[in-house]
Amino acid sequence: MPARKAPKPAAPDKPATPAGSAAPAGPEPAPRPAAQPAKPGAQLDPKARAIGERVKEHLQTLYGTSVRQVLVFGDHARGAAGPDSVLDIAAVVDDTLIPRDVERTLEDLLFDVLMEDRELASAIVLHEGQFRDYASPLIMRLKDEGVAV
User: Fold this and answer.
1) Quick check: pTM over 0.90?
2) Which end of the chain has fewer beta carbons closer than 10 Å to its terminal beta carbon, N or C?
3) Where do the structural domains in the chain lie, given as residue ranges?
4) Fold of 39-148
């Protein structure tokens, strides 16, 4: 059995490509800019802001200072909401709370929002450490476009 050839050493600015695989086409994508903190007071339509504040008040009543911030993100934060847009809300809590348990406390409130305000809203709850330290696409989007209420 003949010996396999080792891949050729890569140029200093390019990673090595295993034998038989194609090199990536085109230039490398530009690095994503560092995420900015949530924008307090950025423009939100009054209805989205009121619902976000309602969620924040509900959570602070239950959990006090363990609720670090509440953000509106997605179409409403970008000013691109249409009639079929969902109001996306994220809550950042300290590590003493269990995010799924906090989300469950929002189910009835979000149903009331749907019935009373005719606004479909969804909520996600994240630990403060996740929000601060992780770079998942969702968290990067929250940091880039989230509007603090």
Assistant:
1) no
2) N
3) 39-148
4) Beta Polymerase; domain 2 (3.30.460)
